[in-house]
Design brief:
Order of helices and strands: HEE
Structural class: alpha+beta
Strand order of the largest sheet: 1-2
Oligomer: single chain
Radius of gyration: 21 Å
Number of strands: 2
Number of helices: 1
Number of domains: 1
Helix content: 25-40%
Largest sheet: 2 strands, antiparallel
Shape: elongated
């Protein structure tokens, strides 16, 4: 009984690992780096834009990382 559970766990882990490597090959987004969104005192302010490749729902997330705020 114990060996049967161990065998099922090994099979499950192997399946999950092979599926995760297949998913990792194609990211679910397109990344555009260094997009200028504004200019202050002649210096361009940059951001990275991640656009989903699948069906979108029109929502967006803005993540600001800064110690100056």
């Amino acid at each position: 009984m114990h060996a049967d559970r161990l065998w099922r766990l090994i099979c499950l882990c192997t399946t999950l690992l092979s599926a995760s490597t297949a998913i990792a090959d194609e990211p679910p987004f397109v990344q555009k780096e260094n997009v200028v969104y504004s200019e202050v005192h002649g210096i361009g302010l940059l951001m990275d834009v991640f656009t989903p490749t699948g069906k979108s729902n029109g929502l967006a997330v803005i993540d600001v990382i800064s110690g100056a705020w």
